[in-house]
Amino acid sequence: MKIETELLDRAEELIKKYGALNISMAEVHLGVCSSSHMFRIFKNKNSLLARLCVREMMSNVEKIKSDAPDYMSRHFKVVTDPFIYDYLSIQDKYMVKYYLNIFLSKLRKSNLAGVIGFKQAYDVQ
């Protein structure tokens, strides 16, 4: 497993335990890699949250393709909230928007577009 994936998995565990805004980057790297290595991969907590949001959106795209919408998640939609989104780097904003557009285009093409309010949940300016 790649270190980035392990860090994302660890962060996801911590978020389930403490909430997205309350995780500490000092805890994320424990048992995975050194803190300096983690900060080479993720510049800060917002960068980590943006990557988790992208991973969630792409996972949801796969679920749309396989007609398994019951298991789609909106846990990391918090990243598109202005409280976090406004503080993302330009690069992270573009990454989130790019993958959000892929996700929403797949959602529009599916028969789920009217059923699930994902556009509103992930709406970014």
UniProtKB/TrEMBL annotation:
Name the domain of life this protein comes from: Bacteria
The entry's protein name is Helix-turn-helix transcriptional regulator
